UniProtKB/TrEMBL annotation:
Organism superkingdom: Bacteria
Keyword hit for Protein transport: no
Domain CBS: 9-65, 73-132
Protein name: CBS domain-containing protein
SMART domains: CBS
Keywords: CBS domain
PANTHER family: CBS DOMAIN-CONTAINING PROTEIN, CBS DOMAIN-CONTAINING PROTEIN CBSX3, MITOCHONDRIAL
Organism: Paenibacillus artemisiicola
CDD domains found in the cross-reference section: CBS_pair_HRP1_like
Pfam families linked: CBS
């Protein structure tokens, strides 16, 4: 029987708010060795910023470190709930070409599940490998902010 995301997700999420700027996000990512930061209002998930977003939408677009988070964040975020199966999470990651999925309950961020979370749990090694393979193979040369 497939385990649910609640059993696999990370709950100690480093987050930021719309009051933060591009520089502060870069420092958060460096200090916590992460490449993905959920943007929240209170506990409500309103967007995400990846290290790729900082580069493509921030610095490569000639924005300074004081640029607002809202200028670089993705606000149309694919999310799942904590009761989603690990198998389904892997399928969603593969079909949407993303490596991390915010887990929400009533719009509030409760965790993050990543391909690594699926792969670390041996039961999902095949699913995580297939998801990563699909993400890697579907590159089209277009510039998208993958999460």
């Amino acid at each position: 029987m497939s385990r649910v995301v609640k059993e696999l997700m990370s709950t100690d999420c480093v987050t930021a708010t719309l009051k933060d700027n591009v520089y502060e996000l870069a420092v958060l990512m460096r200090d916590h060795d992460i490449g993905f930061v959920p943007i929240v209002e209170g506990k409500k998930l309103i967007g995400i910023v990846t290290d790729r977003d900082l580069v493509i939408r921030g610095y490569a677009a000639k924005h300074s470190g004081s640029t607002a988070v809202s200028d670089v964040m993705t606000d149309d975020v694919k999310t799942i709930d904590a009761g989603t199966s690990g198998d389904e999470a892997a399928r969603i990651m593969a079909s949407h070409q993303i490596r991390r999925l915010p887990v929400v309950e009533n719009g509030n961020l409760v965790g993050i599940v990543s391909i690594g979370d699926l792969a670390v749990r041996e039961i999902f090694v095949d699913e995580a490998g297939q998801a990563l393979s699909s993400i890697s193979e579907q590159g089209t040369g277009e510039t998208h902010a993958y999460h």
